[in-house]
Design brief:
- Keywords: Signal.
- The protein has one helix at 2-20; strands at residues 32-37, 43-44, 50-57, 60-61, 71-78, 95-97, 104-107, 112-121, 137-141.
- The strands form 2 sheets. Strands 2, 4, 5, 6, 8 and 9 form a 6-stranded mixed sheet that branches. A 3-stranded antiparallel sheet has the order 1-3-7, with no helix packed on it.
- The protein has 1 helix and 9 strands.
Length: 142
């Protein structure tokens, strides 16, 4: 009996931090976010801006400060890991905000290896629940 109770309590304790680590705005469970261009492993020319195209399925895009069900706006993470899921997404050169509802941008990066990843934020730039983010891709600028 004690082992069953201990196992149950451990399971609850392990689940609590995950629930506390998400934003409050609900996202569709089947939302799918991806980078349409560039492709993973792609080599891009140095000294030229290139287009980054954001793809999203089963969820809508709305500008910041617009609270509408099943919507959010894009954030492009450049050479960065995912930020905490229960706090506002940083706004700096590694965390670009697209609060006007943009679905693409032009980026120029220095030569080298870089990573790109998208993360949806709610009307206040906090990740949705569940968090909606793309796979991280690697590109090379030469």
């Amino acid at each position: 009996m004690f082992k069953l109770l201990a196992a149950t309590l451990l399971g609850v304790i392990l689940l609590l931090p995950a629930a506390a680590m998400a934003g409050e705005t609900p996202a569709p469970p089947d939302a799918y976010l991806y980078i349409g261009f560039p492709n993973n492993g792609q080599v891009l020319p140095a000294g030229k801006p290139f287009r980054v195209w954001f793809g999203l399925r089963n969820m809508g895009v709305a500008p910041k400060d617009v609270k509408f069900p099943k919507t959010g706006h894009h954030h492009l993470l450049i050479d960065a890991d995912l930020p905490p899921m229960d706090k506002e997404i940083p706004n700096d050169r590694n965390h670009l905000h697209f609060g006007a509802g943009e679905t693409e941008t032009m980026v120029e990066l220095p030569p080298g290896k870089h990573t790109l990843q998208l993360l949806m934020g709610d009307d206040k730039h906090i990740p949705t629940n569940p968090p909606v983010y793309s796979k991280k891709i690697t590109i090379y600028v030469k």
